[in-house]
Amino acid sequence: xxxxxxxxxxxxxxxxxxxxxxxxxxxxxxxxxxxxxxxxxxxxxxxxxxxxxxxxxxxxxxxxxxxxxxxxxxxxxxxxxxxxxxxxxxxxxxxxxxxxxxxxxxxxxxxxxxxxxxxxxxxxxxxxxxxxxxxxxxxxxxxxxxxxxxxxxxxxxxxxxxxxxxxxxxxxxxxxxxxxxxxxxxxxxxxxxxxxxxxxxxxxxxxxxxxxxxxxxxxxxxxxxxxxxx
Amino acid sequence: xxxxxxxxxxxxxxxxxxxxxxxxxxxxxxxxxxxxxxxxxxxxxxxxxxxxxxxxxxxxxxxxxxxxxxxxxxxxxxxxxxxxxxxxxxxxxxxxxxxxxxxxxxxxxxxxxxxxxxxxxxxxxxxxxxxxxxxxxxxxxxxxxxxxxxxxxxxxxxxxxxxxxxxxxxxxxxxxxxxxxxxxxxxxxxxxxxxxxxxxxxxxxxxxxxxxxxxxxxxxxxxxxxxxxxxxxxxxxxxxxxxxxxxxxxxxxxxxxxxxxxxxxxxxxxxxxxxxxxxxxxxxxxxxxxxxxxxxxxxxxxxxxxxxxxxxxxxxxxxxxxxxxxxxxxxxxxxxxxxxxxxxxxxxxxxxxxxxxxxxxxxxxxxxxxxxxxxxxxxxxxxxxxxxxxxxxxxxxxxxxxxxxxxxxxxxxxxxxxxxxxxxxxxxxxxxxxxxxxxxxxxxxxxxxxxxxxxxxxxxxxxxxxxxxxxxxxxxxxxxxxxxxxxxxxxxxxxxxxxxxxxxxxxxxxxxxxxxxxxxxxxxxxxxxxxxxxxxxxxxxxxxxxxxxxxxxxxxxxxxxxxxxxxxxxxxxxxxxxxxxxxxxxxxxxxxxxxxxxxxxxxxxxxxxxxxxxxxxxxxxxxxxxxxxxxxxxxxxxxxxxxxxxxxxxxxxxxxxxxxxxxxxxxxxxxxxxxxxxxxxxxxxxxxxxxxxxxxxxxxxxxxxxxxxxxxxxxxxxxxxxxxxxxxxxxxxxxxxxxxxxxxxxxxxxxxxxxxxxxxxxxxxxxxxxxxxxxxxxxxxxxxxxxxxxxxxxxxxxxxxxxxxxxxxxxxxxxxxxxxxxxxxxxxxxxxxxxxxxxxxxxxxxxxxxxxxxxxxxxxxxxxxxxxxxxxxxxxxxxxxxxxxxxxxxxxxxxxxxxxxxxxxxxxxxxxxxxxxxxxxxxxxxxxxxxxxxxxxxxxxxxxxxxxxxxxxxxxxxxxxxxxxxxxxxxxxxxxxxxxxxxxxxxxxxxxxxxxxxxxxxxxxxxxxxxxxxxxxxxxxxxxxxxxxxxxxxxxxxxxxxxxxxxxxxxxxxxx
Lengths: 230, 1056
Hints:
Chain A is α+β, with helices and mostly antiparallel strands. Chain A folds into 2 domains: 4-97, Ubiquitin-like (UB roll); 108-226, no CATH class. Helix content of chain A is 30%, strand content 10%. Chain A contains 7 helices and 5 strands; from the N terminus they run ββαβββαααααα. In chain A, strands 2-1-5-3-4 form a 5-stranded mixed β-sheet, with helices on both faces. The model of chain A is unreliable at 1-6 (pLDDT under 50). Chain B is α/β, with parallel strands linked by helices. Chain B folds into 6 domains: 6-140, 3-Layer(aba) Sandwich (Glutaredoxin); 175-376, NADH-ubiquinone oxidoreductase 51kDa subunit (Rossmann fold, 3-Layer(aba) Sandwich); 386-571, Ubiquitin-like (UB roll); 578-662 and 993-1016 and 1029-1049, Fumarate Reductase Iron-sulfur Protein, Chain B, domain 2 (Orthogonal Bundle), CATH 1.10.1060.10; 672-766 and 914-989, FAD/NAD(P)-binding domain (3-Layer(bba) Sandwich), CATH 3.50.50.60; 775-911, FAD/NAD(P)-binding domain (3-Layer(bba) Sandwich). Helix content of chain B is 39%, strand content 15%. Chain B contains 43 helices and 28 strands. In chain B, a hairpin with a 5-residue loop joins β3 (75-78) and β4 (84-87). Chain B starts with 5 loop residues before the first helix and ends with a helix. The chains are: A alpha+beta, B alpha/beta. Chain A binds chain B through residues 3, 52-57, 60, 70-71, 73, 76-78, 91, 94-95, 98-99, 102-103, 105-106, and chain B through 220, 337-338, 340-341, 492-495, 497-499, 502, 526, 529-530, 532-535.
């Protein structure tokens, strides 16, 4: 695509204040990847690298100089001499966080049936961008039949904040809820539904939550009331 | 025939010009989609039949849209050598007269004629239609305000030529620019000319067209495409449709020029399939152009080849975005893609592609004809040329207009558009459709161009302009547009797909009364991020309606969120019926109308009295804002709410079956409140305070209660017996009154504050404003309110035979009518503006005229003529009408002319001020701006603890119902301050009046409102007997039955 004479000529661009050498037909995402600068992606698939839709908006970077200022998806943003972008600016963080929040807001939260089986990218983003949106189940590899709830164990995973990589369940124990109870009502509702399906008593759930989430139990109680469990 | 040379073009032009000049009589129909929709086609058929019957030979022509949507259907008549005359709002009856009188008779039917086209509206010199002989008595087009500020470049041929005839287009200078470009100019020269013109893409983004062409020209590749974007999707925008329907060749010529400039060989017109007539006309035009060698191989005898195909879009909003449009043409799903690469390098089938909007392309031939510099001389520094707008919404003359860039919004709305209908107040104008924003009142004077609109948070967009008046709820507007964009979002990128949905959810929450305080901030945050992080312009601009309404109408959001109120009566969940929502006192209008319908007049009176202690008084003098919002007015005419109120009051309190109304009240609290002033606000506060169980004491400076109701309103409008009756009803609740005690003089405010638990100040605004001229206090000058007070007290002053009143408010009219009754022979009202701008009630003005009051408009007092030591007349300066102000009123501008009027008595009635004597000791804290009393808008609390204030003293002179509402509000917040709880709800619970909740089923037929009888003008002009009579029982019940009971349907909607 590029005129032949510019092929092979290295150009310089700046990412987060540091200059990098790159090929003229690369995108900012390529350059960042080659230099170990983390940029989150969801819709980008390295196997189909030629198809870049730029639709998930996770890889947004902020153009600081050398281009139209503002947020641009790095997967489609071609490098050019003098281009300077930031991958860590406040705008970038806000935009990525909002993208994850939006995705979570559409998410069904059926973590216990999810084929990702503990390797959930969305859960990772929720951790990275401080979104209280997913329970420990998203990190737990025990799916479906091996789920502790199915085995009659009152695991606190469905109503506990993710961010521990499901340490206990991976070791074969139940989640004790030491990360405290979620406050996101939508997610709590899904967790409570799981308990209800498995036939656990509301008092036992509250008792389990009491251990670590003493200050948030009132929230849990309120949601349980609204859900008709109390 | 194949056109190759200029001579060929001239030959074609001859035929076209013959047709345009009209060598035989012509009758011309505006048959664009708008004309057809309003019945133009049926009229054309009728004309054909009628002419055939009469055996008269005339050409019957169909043209496009001239832009006057408000005057459709339009019919023009043109006789040989004579100008074309336009007739508006034609029906068969009128058409017959037009054909008989003008087409066959030879002279225009002046009373039906709208305008004559004697000079061409277009800027093109070639083929201009100018006639020396113009008809007498028919205004010229350029004299119509609608056209006076227009400049027609894009619309040069619309409504003038027949769109199906290429010879007419050529006669108007068409294809000469293409000829010039192909034969005489290098592609680079063409680009240079367009660049110099400063033309920006009219599709919305406003990118420089010349630059866009240059990028595409410079992009490597032999195969290139030139595409016309006619996918017009904004609700309420129809610029492109009008051009394609009315003048398709101008777009084709623009495309040829552009294709030549960038080196394209193939082109497409992407037009939405909802535009069947546009598609038909374009197809026809393309066929003609190919037949004449204007498209295809070797255009105009050169070796340049280019052809155009039509691609019909399925009406998807996002396909207006260029990358989505390209995918749609490619046969793929119409979704935008991330740019870069831009279409200029990688577009249709990955080949360099240039896409321009219809309007942009239609401007190009004129730029080539008259030069880039000419175009650049129009408009503002950064935005050149003209822009077509579709002016719609709450405006008197909606239509399609083309104006130079830089014109003021005020000019468009008030001069071209004729202002807001029904004396409503302008609120905002929405530009740029769902991607645009709302521009409020305070920015009406900005020069419209791309840059200013952007700085105001809106965009130019494709040119939709929706005018909104006070009946529009801005939160609802944002909700409407977000509903549109969330539906139209293609769903590719996260912020737009999910974000618009989440934004819409929050807006839905707010408009249904479930908003929470954090919502405004949440909306702003989310909207900004959606704007900044979306993939294409749809998501990038979708939050604009939210962001601009948040920026300019935050108060409305707060009202919805905190007070759960929608002042515009739009958000159905937040009010019961618009009448009740609009009444300052919140009177249950649908309830008492239902009771009247059912014959329960005492109940109706009592229900009224729940919210307003003065039903009989308001039934006579209320300015009834409720009626202006009555839903029935959209059907035939509003319910006569005030007259119904009067009917039930008179029947329940004055008639044979009259009885004292029972009053619900709460247990005594033992709290005492002093009320300063016994006017409507003070009395209303006393009424509600007493009912809440408190013990109010009124301090009244005169010997009688009623305030402005008694002293400021003449007896022929409001008999004093009525005031006495309703005031006594209040006093019987246990209200103490200290007559003839003036607070500030006889007793100090400090003493009251010490003695009582709370004080409510309702002193009104009763000081007459002086004229501010030299010797404006000489004998012979009597201030208006002062005079009214004397007349009402029965102390008739000596006035003489000739009297003039200066001013245009209710006091002025009351004075004039009263003095006439006292025997003045000639009474004149002199007002500095025009009649429609008088603040006095319309009914009062009409009654005054009927009684023989003389009116002088557009005169402002300049000097008082003094003889001896007495004022004997006034020298007035005559005014003319200047610019429109923010209320849509034209500002008076002095002229050289003067008018001298001599009189025995001169009465200035130009407004009132608050007398601040009461505030002795607290003046610095209580008296604020414009000498009004300071009080919080909601709680009516003043900066001094336990002192509240309301009524005219706080608001300035206002209506009785507003003062009553303020008294009610004060009672409520004083109650909260004294007892710590809102006992109003308890009071409301005591109300046991029930009325039918079954919606009426049989009143959906047109039925004009009942009107009360007036005493004959001659008889009443010499007596103080009441002028307006009470409606009779049959009429009242008939009128009550007209009510739609929209409070019931609103409840259903709210639940939904």
